[in-house]
Specification:
Blueprint: E1 3-8, E2 14-18, E3 35-38, H1 47-62, H2 70-76
Antiparallel strand pairs: 1-2, 1-3
Length: 77
């Protein structure tokens, strides 16, 4: 299910929406259904590894084990 960017014609708000099928979509701010689909920016190449690494560092600081390998998680439990 893709996430699309929309602009509401009624209130002018821009927002992202998780699109499930081709059903009618509504603005979360004013419930208007007159929406313009916008072009979304894609993530620059090479940044996804940095995002994952930053998430793992944050998990380590908070004591989560999501950054551990499967073998390491087995030893901790």
């Amino acid at each position: 299910m893709p996430i699309h960017d929309f602009r509401c014609r009624s209130c002018g708000q821009q927002f992202e929406l998780l699109v499930r099928g081709d059903g009618p979509h509504a603005c979360p701010h004013c419930a208007g259904t007159a929406l313009d689909k916008l072009l979304s920016r894609i993530a620059p190449h090479g940044h996804s590894r940095e995002i994952v690494a930053a998430g793992r560092r944050a998990a380590a600081r908070e004591g989560h084990f999501s950054h551990y390998s499967r073998a390491d998680r087995a030893r901790v439990k």
